[in-house]
Amino acid sequence: MATPRALGHAGAVSVTTEPTSPDDLARALDGTGYLADEGLASAAFLALRMGRPLFCEGEPGTGKTALAQALSESLGLPLVRLQCHEGIDASQALYDWDFPRQLLHLRALEASASASHTELDVDAVESSLYDRRFLLARPVLQALQDAPCVLLVDEVDRADDEFEAFLLEVLAENSVTIPEIGVVKAETPPLVVLTSNRTREVHDALKRRCLYLWLEHPDLARETAILRRRLPDLPEALAEQVAQAVHGLRGLDLLKPPGVAESIDWAQALQLVGARHLDLASATATLGAVLKYREDADRARDKLDALLAS
Ligand SMILES: Nc1ncnc2c1ncn2[C@@H]1O[C@H](COP(=O)(O)OP(=O)(O)O)[C@@H](O)[C@H]1O
Ligand SMILES: [Mg+2]
What we know:
Helices cover about 50% and strands about 15% of the residues. The protein has three domains: about 5-90 and about 140-215, P-loop containing nucleotide triphosphate hydrolases (Rossmann fold, 3-Layer(aba) Sandwich), CATH 3.40.50; about 95-135, no CATH class; about 220-300.
């Protein structure tokens, strides 16, 4: 099991209970309900020990976001999450000034000056407005301040090039400069997990800084095991049938192939309608839990018989 950290490693993320091997980390992740294969456990272990960001790429629902959550839980580190979206900029990722509070502060200064018939010192007023108490730490700054922690930069493929360049700079330095305040540097680097659903290629420069992990959908045995871990009351036979059917669906060239989240939803839906087996009737009744496009559902319905027979 994880042992207390004995020796420091240059650049390593500092944790109180440090996994001693990929297997050890896999066991710790398992303890949180996250089932890692060998490649994943090795990549995460190395990211931790080398103090390098882990760049996780894969189809939606392959467990990228859940990995960051499981790492934070199993390592006992707080999770700081930055959800990327189109148009996200540095002020949403790093910090912002609390404008309403600054304004109130200014009004209060003005009121007190006018009550005491004194002149405001403009320079002093201005510098008092850029005090730390008016600083809103957004996730990246928060992670640098809170490190050791896990910083999840989720769905970085949704952000634009400029934002990527900004991230690269922060990740390289583990610090940010706030002109009015100075440099904020993390004492130990956060464990950074970046995820991408690969809606576009992320630049080489960003990848070069990171360790790379491609996440596949789990194989049949692992998906069955995941279903049973997430839904402890699910009978093994039903878990196997769902995993098998979902694997079949993934082979149908659908618009949106089901991820693990959909397998879990499907199995749960089947349980809720009291199905003991996945058959044509129960599959049809619960298909909306696993396929979310009309075209996909139509396509699957045509093949359902064959899928369930295999
Ligand atoms: N290896 C795994 N072990 C346990 N649960 C998993 C695993 N992979 C995926 N899941 C579950 O599948 C769901 C979808 O995973 P998520 O991390 O949201 O996918 P992604 O971020 O890749 O789109 C989550 O509920 C997660 O708990
Ligand atoms: Mg995700």
